[in-house]
Fold this protein.
Amino acid sequence: MKRWYTYLFAGCCAVALGACTGNFRDLNDDRSGITDKELEADNNGLGYRLGIIQQGVYFNYDYGKGKNWPFQMTQNLSADMFSGYMHDPKPLQGGSHNSDYNLQDGWNSAMWQFTYSYIMPEIYRLEQTAPEQMPAFYAITKILKVLVMHRVTDYYGPVIYTHFGNRGNEYVPDSQEEVYGHFFNDLDEAEEILTAVVQSRGPSEEFGKFDLLLDGSYTSWIRFAASLRMRLAMRVSGVMPERGAAEFRKSLAGPFGVIEANPANAAVSTSGTYMNPLGEINRNWNEAAMNASMESIMGGYGDPRLGKFFEPCKSDLVIPDESGELVTVALKGDFRGIRQGTCFSHNYYAAFSRLAIETTTDAVLMTAAEVWFLRAEAALRGWTDEDAETCYRNGVTMSFAQWQAPGYEKYLASDAMAADYSDPLAPENDIAARCRVSPRWDETASPELKLERIITQKWIAMYPEGCEAWAEQRRTGYPRLFPVRYNHSKGQSIDTETMIRRLPYPATLETSDPDQYAALVKELAGPDDGGTRLWWDTGRNF
């Protein structure tokens, strides 16, 4: 971020978190800045609030505090990097921070802070008012609640979900097992309501003027809910395989189907006032570059999508060597990524590959490609009668079509492997490729290798949505990312090879609301650090 923002937010975040989490039971106070007059002028306050929630998934809504930097804190300096997608080329915090597991509370608290300060209060109000006024809007609220909060629980673990705003229960936390059960129930309720609306009066467009994610049709929201159910069903495959299989099959058998083609993809639209915050961070702040794992896998594959995701280096780099003599580092025209955890204190990596993401690029949340890869894994697990290879190929094909990349047939026949990583600035960062699979499907491979192939391609296809990519990498161990070069986690609580598993709760919770903090950690069932596995993170796949 712009340097003064770095220190401003780091300083202010503690104050803001103290105000928010110190009075956690008062978070249902409206802090969105919406006035009653604005709600009346809009002629539908329910839709106005739903618009805020949709923008709040990526926190590019101006809550009177500015834009873009909330997204950098909530996602870009954590999930986008931990997923193996990106890395900040600037030496923030002197070069030691989340990258080398020197976890920054001011960064890691942001997802918790902004969700509970701004988004959950809007959801709470809609849950209280929408059921009678506009049942369909209430149903969409439920879907958005699951969309927003599954990202939060997959960051931290236990969360406040069912008892948010319930003073009588003093915000009792839900364990992750409980909250996933509530997710499925909420999606059930939403689908039932919307299905009844569609059956009674057709796929109404009354939500269209508020819809930032889809096309305004209630049938599209039913398909999205079913696809989201598939994502969550697969997440619990290691801890509740029978429930996961049942939920997955329920989605597949739904009357309106799931997302199968790119026109149905869910993305926060930039056609109105919303701008993609990642584009701002990338283009105007120069604080987003390719991760070394992306260079290794996509570069080794010769993946035609690489040039759609990233830009080749614009010029060579001239820097002084150890003796002070100027030397030229050949970069121009190459795709170069930064290895996580290298603790650099210079700006030379700013010459590495930038993202091809603009402020006008829609912020993708779920694609047809992801759904096809979910179906491939479900078939591999025996949850369905579908053919895993067919679903896998459909996933790759949909991803190529989404990015308008040529040559998917040749790619699917390729036996190319990931490439070793070579850092042209610091050879000590070099590391051999970790990924073991090529793009070509191998029916004779073991289930584990088939899963690695599915998830590696799914990881590529989900770019640049780091939250989901990081969650799936933790769940499966795929793709095989490069470990950090230096591990500066507190007390070595994060294993270098196992990698970071979660983010700690905001530090101010422990002092400002010790009862709340103790209840959350009790449900976590492990130390509140980055090395504790979440409930669904079992460390095994079969």
